[in-house]
Amino acid sequence: MKIKKITISVAMIFAFAFFLSANAEASNVSVNLRGYPVVLRNPSPRFVHERVAVSISEFARSFGGEIVWLPETREIMVFYNGRYIWMQLSNPAMYYGSFRRNADGSKLFTSVSRTVLDVRPYIDNDKAVGQLGAIVEGLGGAVEWESESRTANVIMPLVQLPTRAERAAAAAEAAAAEPVSKGFFDDTLLNAMAQSVYFQLMTADEVREKRGADDPFILLCFRGEKNNIGEIADVMRAAADLNLRLYGINLNEERLSGFGLTNRAVQVCFVFASDHYETIAVSEYDDAVNSMRAYWEYVNE
Questions:
Q1: Of 87, 162, 231, 289, which shows the fewest CB atoms inside 10 Å?
Q2: DSSP assignment string, 144-167
């Protein structure tokens, strides 16, 4: 019995030593920004699925990025130099694009694109960790990898400060422009989607007018409340990923009848013609993609 116990103990020691060496190897990665080392601890930079992963917030602060964390939906956004990225824990999709600030300090999103991550964002030591290369490239930078030193050299564009003439022109434009408001939408991916080419928020009268034109369209009917953000975002992302135009109506602000709506907070109405439609409840991204794809194939037969 003693010999057996000793054998097990030795095996456990070797296994523990292997675990420590494997983790040391995994975290033996350095990150430089514009030629200078970036100190990232707990967690330190490491390889995940052959990609360098870093603490999103710590890395973003190293170059002056603005970080937004939404705990309810587990979303992370980083804003820098007129660019933004959007990530969500465990979500393989990352959205990125450009934005500008309005006179009141709010953000006006001017473009949105999508990429698929090799490393889904996850939590380590209470910090969100994400794929370094995707973060940098989404914000307009580049990464050069040195294999011998295991160093990721990050090149981020310097913040472009406007000239005096540009500031004066922007101030005059802001003073003359109507305030930009999307109501329920705020500085999140929903805002980017709401202001993108894929989405148009409509009034009840506009919806009825469009239906009367006898053209097919997809209508997102939602109640603008914070606990519905996840489902609304899933429908918006599905439409953007399929390159489909999506129209929306906030049922908390507009009354709409004649579309077979129920009391569900988020519904999608597929309008085939003025007298032909189908309304369904969509609870997640895959549901939205499958139903939208089937609809589009049907109307284009």
A1: 162
A2: EEETTTTEEEEE-PPP-PPPHHHH
Q: How far is CA 187 from the centre of its chain?
A: 11
User: What is the separation of C-alpha 57 from the centre of its chain, rounded to a whole number of angstroms?
Assistant: 15
pLDDT in tens, 131-174: 999 999 999 999 999 999 999 999 998 876 667 776 677 667 65
Phi-psi region of 140 (alpha: psi -120 to 50; beta: other; left: phi over 0): left
Angstrom distance (rounded) from CA 239 to CA 245: 7
Which helix (H) or strand (E) element contains residue 267?
strand 266-273
CATH code for residues 197-299: 3.40.30.10
Q: What global pTM score does this model have? A: 0.64
48 and 120 Cβ atoms separated by less than 8 Å: no
C-alpha to C-alpha distances, 157 to 138, 161, 246, nearest whole angstrom: 12, 12, 34
* Coil/strand/helix, residue 279: strand
In 3D space, the residue among 126, 96, 122, 89 whose CA is nearest the CA of residue 110 turns out to be 96
Q: Compute the distance between CA of residue 5 and CA of residue 11 in angstroms, rounded to an integer.
A: 10
- Helix H or strand E segment including 136: helix 132-138
Q: What is the pLDDT of residue 109?
A: 77
Domain ranges of the chain: 28-164, 197-299
State the Cα–Cα distance between residues 198 and 149, nearest whole angstrom.
Answer: 44
The secondary structure of residue 213, as a DSSP letter, is T
Residue 37 and residue 29: Cα distance in Å, rounded? 11
What is the DSSP code (8-state) at residue 259?
S
